[in-house]
Design brief:
Blueprint: E1 6-12, H1 17-28, E2 34-41, H2 47-54, E3 58-61, H3 64-67, H4 70-83, E4 88-91, H5 100-103, E5 110-114, H6 129-138, E6 142-149, E7 159-166, H7 173-202
Parallel strand pairs: 1-2, 1-4, 2-3, 4-5
Antiparallel strand pairs: 5-6, 6-7
Helix pairs in contact: 1-7, 6-7
The structure holds glycinamide ribonucleotide (GAR).
């Protein structure tokens, strides 16, 4: 594919601070080889949808409950991705595991941000605050964040970028989560998005 900008969809479930980091990076020029054209949420109350609306980007709520099955949910997501001619799918706090049928359709076209240094504290059951609770429970002194390609293994795809963050005495899951976001997630996710968009635009990928 040779084009000026890759078309990006961001899949979200919650607050959307990582979505915001991507949108801010687009504004500041850190991301210049891709543009977010669609935000999909599986949670109708996700503040990320408000962030999309504020940025003038199409937001869509797709309900697994109403569609009644994972297959129907994923079919609706695929329809939207096709309608918007999406090149790159970014999972940014998307709290639902996608099936192999879905992930195998988009090899090296889906990336995810995980709030730990994979292979630590990852896989099924490790998401959001739970990851930081587990890190504190274990007593690690360094944690961080990882951006990786998404394949059929939860948090198991090829690693694109990682950044380490110090755990501090007295940290709670909430203070650690915030530091990992500020020092790692909001830095490596936009940088990874740009890197992959460059490759997609130059036809390398
Ligand atoms: C982020 O910390 C992200 O890394 C994590 O959820 C949070 C979402 O925050 N994702 C996962 O745990 C996925 N397994 P956000 O909605 O403010 O971006």
């Amino acid at each position: 594919m040779l084009k000026n900008k890759a078309r990006i969809a961001v899949l979200v479930s919650g607050g959307g601070t990582n979505l915001q980091a991507i949108l801010d990076a687009e504004k500041s020029g850190i991301i210049h080889s891709g543009e977010v054209v669609l935000v999909i949420s599986n949670n109708k109350d996700a503040y990320a949808l408000t962030r999309a609306a504020n940025a003038g980007i199409q937001g869509l709520y797709i309900s697994k409950k109403e569609l009644k099955s994972q297959a129907a949910f994923e079919a609706a997501v695929i329809n939207a991705l096709e309608e918007y001619r999406i090149d790159l799918i970014v999972l940014a706090g998307f709290m639902s595991i996608l099936s192999e049928q879905f992930t195998s359709r988009y090899p090296k076209r889906i990336i995810n941000i995980h709030p730990a240094l994979i292979p630590s504290f990852c896989g099924k059951g490790y998401y959001g605050l739970k990851v930081h609770e587990a890190a504190l429970e274990k007593g690690v002194k360094i944690t961080g964040a990882t951006v990786h390609f998404v394949n059929e293994i939860p948090d198991g795809g090829e690693i694109i970028a990682q950044k380490a963050v110090q755990v501090e005495d007295g940290d709670t899951p909430e203070t650690l989560q915030r530091r990992v976001m500020e020092q790692a997630e909001w830095v490596i996710l936009p940088a990874s998005v740009e890197k992959i968009c460059v490759a997609l635009c130059s036809g390398e990928s």
